[in-house]
Amino acid sequence: MPRRPQDVWLPMLAIHAAFMASAILYGVIAYLLSDAGAGAKGGGDRALVLGVLGGAAAIAAIASFVVRARVMPARRRGGAPAPISLEQLTAAPAAGAVARLRSALVVGWALCEGVALLGLVAAFWFRDAALYAPFGAGTLGLLLAQAPRPYLLTEVVAALPR
């Protein structure tokens, strides 16, 4: 059971940073394993394959917001955020709400990472690291847009029954 709001939030920041680092690492892997200057390789029509992978990436990006919103626990928005007391954070209803908040964030980030993985597939398929760039940049943008923010925890705790 968390004793302070930081006990909830700092691990979420670490997990988020790991997702961001993985998106960057995928780009490095794509670069190291590509045939720089060797020309496009791989089977299939390049435009068709990239269109399918790009469409799947767009679906994953949209799904990251939709699934996150559906899994997110109830939140009370608006107004100045009140400090979270230890009693509120350790109450039984808070445990379930915090678990749902964590789940919503991690599932959203995993779907964002799926965009990067589709870019890695494109880079491997055609042995062209440049194909990863838009997927990797999109992933980093999505992850930044869905970064954990302390007000989320405050809004979730404020919505708990008193």
Helical content band: over 70%
Helix and strand pattern: HHHHHH
Could you describe the largest sheet, including whether it forms a barrel?
Answer: none
Average pLDDT reading? 87
* SSE-based structural type: mainly alpha
Report how far the terminal alpha carbons are from each other: 19 Å
Low-confidence stretches: none
How would you portray this structure in words?
The mean pLDDT is 87. Helix 1 (5-33) packs parallel to helix 4 (92-126), helix 1 (5-33) packs antiparallel against helix 5 (132-145) and helix 4 packs antiparallel against helix 6 (150-158). The protein starts with a helix and ends with a helix. The chain has 162 residues and is mainly α. It has one domain. 73% of the residues lie in helices and 0% in strands. The protein contains six helices and no strands.
Keywords:
6 helices, 162 residues, mainly alpha
Summarize the model shown.
The chain has 162 residues and is an all-alpha fold. The chain is built from six helices and no strands.
Task: List the topology elements.
Blueprint: H1 5-33, H2 46-71, H3 86-90, H4 92-126, H5 132-145, H6 150-158
